[in-house]
Design brief:
The protein has about 120 residues and is α+β, with helices and mostly antiparallel strands. The chain has a domain at about 35-115: Ribosomal protein L7/L12, C-terminal domain/Adaptor protein ClpS (Ribosomal Protein L30, Chain: A, 2-Layer Sandwich). The protein has five helices and three strands; from the N terminus they run ααβααβαβ. Helix 3 packs across helix 4 (about 70-85). The relative contact order is 0.18.
């Protein structure tokens, strides 16, 4: 009991340093916003945007490494990015899309995700 009083006194002493009366603090209300399973399962696009820095051969190689695309498909997407400014590389669940975007950023490519529909 004595130890409990000392702990309480120490807490009040710390609180009084910042001019808050002991016992006046309440636990903050923490609101959680959870995604519904429908939002998680909804398909997302992984989009790569054009940049003037990376070589076409480099971009093709990155698409092959990350997505496992054959050379022809990787080149098709690279040319789409070059001519149209962007290409949709993959569609699926959000978590996987975020992983792909993170990997593309690791190779210094500009990539985003967008919700389909």
């Amino acid at each position: 009991m004595n130890r409990l009083r000392r702990n309480r006194a120490a807490q009040c002493a710390v609180l009084s340093v910042v001019d808050v009366p002991c016992g006046a603090l309440e636990m903050p209300a923490i609101e959680k916003q959870e995604a519904t399973s429908e939002e998680i399962e909804m398909p997302w696009n992984v989009i790569v945007h054009n940049d003037p820095v990376n070589l076409m051969s480099y971009v093709t190689m990155v698409f092959q490494r990350i997505f496992g695309y054959p050379r022809e498909r990787a080149e098709k997407h690279m040319l789409e990015v070059h001519h149209n400014g962007r290409s949709i590389l993959w569609s699926g669940v959000r978590e996987r899309a975020e992983l792909y975007v993170q990997q593309l950023h690791g190779y210094l490519l500009l990539a985003t995700i967008e919700k389909i529909g």
